[in-house]
Amino acid sequence: MIGKISGLLDYKGDDHVLIDVRGVGYLVYCSDRTLATLPGPGEAVTLYTDLLVREDLLQLFGFPSLLEKEWHRLLMSVQGVGAKASLAILGALGAEGVNRAIALGDWNAVKAARGIGPKTAQRVVNELKDKAPAVMALGGALAATLASDGAAGEVIEGDPASAQPQPKRVESGGAAVQSEALSALSNLGYGPGEAAGAVAQAAGDAPGADTATLIRAALKLLAPKG
Fold first, then answer.
1. I need a surface site. Which of 2, 85, 188, 226 has the fewest CB within 10 A?
2. What is the DSSP code string of 23-43?
3. Where in the chain is the domain with CATH 2.40.50.140?
4. For residue 11, what is the enclosing H or E element?
5. d(CA 5, CA 184)
6. Which CATH architecture has domain 66-131?
7. CA proximity to 26, closest of 45, 40, 74
8. Domain named Helix-hairpin-helix DNA-binding motif class: which ranges (predicted)?
9. Which pLDDT score is estimated for 87?
10. Contacts for 143-149: CB closer than 8 Å, 24+ residues apart
11. 65 to 117, 131, 142: CA distances (angstroms)
């Protein structure tokens, strides 16, 4: 299983890239969104990958984050959604957008992806809605890990040992905040599905909110009406 590729970008195609890893070229298929974020030829690039194995075919699909890779694998588990349809959905919405659409039951957002009809979009939402909280929590854990790694890699002024290139600090951002809010609501007794929907809606209304603000907004959405 090839889980990640790091090398030099050789060229970009309409739906794929060729990455040179020490003289071996790997053809990796990507969404439009991912292709747009990649650097130019000759520059370093890293993609998390998922290998599709069929009797007559081996194809690599690339993603900018482990969270997006996980959504790809989940989308592929839905009947009628193949690799091409999964990349179309991720290309239209991104990992956070897919999470929000499924948590909110917004199949119209999924339908906006190229080649995705209403029946398929509804199936995606219905089959994956119970998995959205787990993926949201995964996103928070990954973001927190990246933030920790970034802090550990900071350069200390005057310390020659830390003068080598180090990973940049990565702020935990929305994924970690949403994960913390989801955990808090679960501890208050709300079900995973309704908690995920409220957190996703609150995060969409206020993308830069901190954890406390997000929890308050989600609680308002969950409060009985009338």
1. 226
2. TEEEEEE--HHHHHHS--TTS
3. 7-63
4. strand 4-12
5. 36
6. Orthogonal Bundle (1.10)
7. 45
8. 73-92, 108-127
9. 95
10. 143/170, 143/172, 143/173, 143/175, 143/176, 143/179, 144/172, 144/176, 144/179, 146/170, 146/172, 147/171, 147/172, 147/176
11. 27, 18, 9
Q: Report the distance separating Cα 117 and Cα 124, nearest Å.
A: 11
5 SS3 class: strand
C-alpha separations of 207 from 64, 135, 187, 215, 223 in Å: 21, 18, 23, 13, 21
Give the tokens for residue 149: 């790694």
- Are 81 and 88 contacting, i.e. CB atoms less than 8 angstroms apart? no
Q: Tell me which residues of the chain have a pLDDT lower than 70.
A: 138-173, 225-226
Q: How far apart are CA 52 and CA 59, in angstroms?
A: 5
pLDDT of res. 149: 56
pLDDT digits (tens, 9 = 90+) for 140-177: 566 555 555 554 454 444 444 444 433 333 333 477 78
The contacts of residue 29 (CB under 8 Å, 6+ apart) are: 15, 16, 59, 60, 61, 62, 83, 87
Q: Where in the chain is the domain with CATH 1.10.150.20?
A: 66-131
Residue 36: phi, psi to the nearest 5? -70, -20
Following CA atoms 58, 64, 67, 71 in sequence, which dihedral angle do they give, to the nearest 10 degrees?
-50
Joined tokens for residue 169: 């600090």
CATH fold, domain 7-63, is OB fold (Dihydrolipoamide Acetyltransferase, E2P) (2.40.50)
CA 63 to chain centre: 8
Q: Which of 96, 79, 99, 98 is nearest to 88 (CA)?
A: 98
136, HSE (Cβ side, Cα atoms, 13 Å): 32
